[in-house]
Amino acid sequence: MSRIAQTFKELKKTGKKALIPYIMSGDPSLKATKKFITDLERAGADIIELGVPFSDPLADGPTIQGAHERALQNGITLKKVLHLVKEIRKTTQIPLILMTYYNPVFKFGVDAFVRKAVESGVDGVIVPDLIPDEADELIDSARRHNLDTIFLLAPTSTPDRIKKVARASTGFIYYVSITGITGGKLSVSRPMKETLRLIKKRSKKPVAVGFGISKPDEAATIAGLADGVVVGSAIVKLISQGKSIDKFVKSLRKAI
Amino acid sequence: MKKELENLPDKKGHFGQYGGRFVPETLMPALIELEKAYKKYREDKEFLTKLALLQKDYIGRPTPLYHAQQLSEQLGGAKIYLKREDLCHTGAHKINNALAQALLAKKMGKRRIIAETGAGQHGVATATGAALAGLECEIYMGSEDIRRQALNVFRMRLLGAKVTEVNIGSRTLKDAINEALRDWTTNVQNTHYVLGTAFGPHPYPAMVRDFQSVIGKEARQQILKKEGKLPDCLIACVGGGSNSIGLFYAFLKDKIKMIGVEAGGHGIASGEHAARFAGGSLGVFQGCKSYLLQNDDGNVLGTHSVSAGLDYASVGPEHCYLRDMKKIEYTYATDDEALKAFELLSRTEGIIPALESAHAIAEGVKRASVMNKKSVLIINLSGRGDKDVQEVARIKGINL
Ligand SMILES: Cc1ncc(COP(=O)(O)O)c(C=O)c1O
Q: Which top CATH class is A3-255?
């Protein structure tokens, strides 16, 4: 069982939900990212999503776009992020997921990327602009090397898409809570509850919900509906303002 | 038509190894809905009759195939014909696609259309389609392009569209597409994205090609009537690739030389260009797999061209496939060559071409002069140059 699946299993035993923060690698520096990971773990994160910067992050809103831009200005590349993970693995075993757009992976070579990622200690990968229909190469390689592939579902997803995405996902299924981009405004709507119910009916895999969750009370609501809560923009914003993330992450932990 | 060229793309939108759908999952239902609607209405008599009528009475089709006698004589080679897409309503071929997509959006029950624009031509065309179809319209445009194409910005606003400035990344076409895709991802339930070129996720490359293929269908009939034979060579500029595939598509089964001209900017060695075939490599960008100007880490490079409409880092997937099949040849014209052609056509024929089209003219000049007098060359004059006059004056150091 993968480290991610294991984490969800253990949380379930104690009736807890996974807290999954997202930060951008190299924003404001790789050294800072290393420290954030330690801080996040200590504050109660169960799994961490590490962003890989890309020149054209079309699924992201202004806050995370800014993080992409800053990280690129710092010279951060997919190779450097993989190296960072290798370093981090000397001190922590917390599950790590790379969130990267497809082209950096494609340019790296899909199979080469998967091998290198696993060797560095990456547990899973989320590619927001890759749908299962185009992911044969990534899925094949990831299955061979035991890397989790987490695909996304959205409020617009039809039963057909839910079936396809649920089947292709390992570790967990990522439900995008809003029809929109990261940092949008959350609304816990009927379609969301309905889609979550459909996903749960289709698949026994854990479901984490992300996009637009920025406050402890929102996290609490989502935790009542899913197995995990992803918080990105709100943390990235604090980092961009040079503020501490400790208190905020602890308040999220307490809420869910 | 040869089998391997005929049935493309495949079900998943692939042209060989190119194309496909690389988008956030949120958009998948919309793409599937669009594909279904497109398949339905391209065979719907009422829709086609309405489109044909508007092509004739509103766009002004068929556009003339004009024998550029002075230019041909001056060059002393091939007989040059210009396919006059510059005479379309709104001044470029872009309206062929934008109007058809606006009608389709209406049929699909959308109340709002959005689009990206570089040169402003597609933005104007979409705003026009929206006005005609009674749809709300928002156009995304990079701030660098807004500066270069101020006239078109005002035209869009006159037509009732909201023009939204995109102030991130390189502030040109690719960033406008990112913003349009973000808008679509957020408002997909009531909004249709009118993509302006034969690019992006399936079904756009095929749908835009089909809406533009009227150019080649007309040109084929017109040249057969005028010359009693097919042309020897076709030339068109290639931004995303819609005016070029629009001209070439009806000739794919014929043995004709076809040349696509990309933006050479300041030359390939300078790194400041938009020649994806000469300077790019296989990548995945804004919805499809294609040639892409990118660095070793897979980040998209900045591009440069004097013409905003060719200033783009990737190219339509079908072009990659047709290049592999050796059906189409690709080359580039530099800024300087395009500017020279811009002036040449203005003086010899009294036609001011769009700077995009001037790239095709530049290549046409080179080719025509080494072809014999019996041979026939068609250049796609994709748009008129009014929008570029101010920018050309600025480049020449003239204060208007
Ligand atoms: C007049 C004109 N020609 C050509 C182009 C390039 O686009 P495409 O390659 O899709 O024809 C543009 C794009 O804005 C344009 O305005």
A: alpha beta
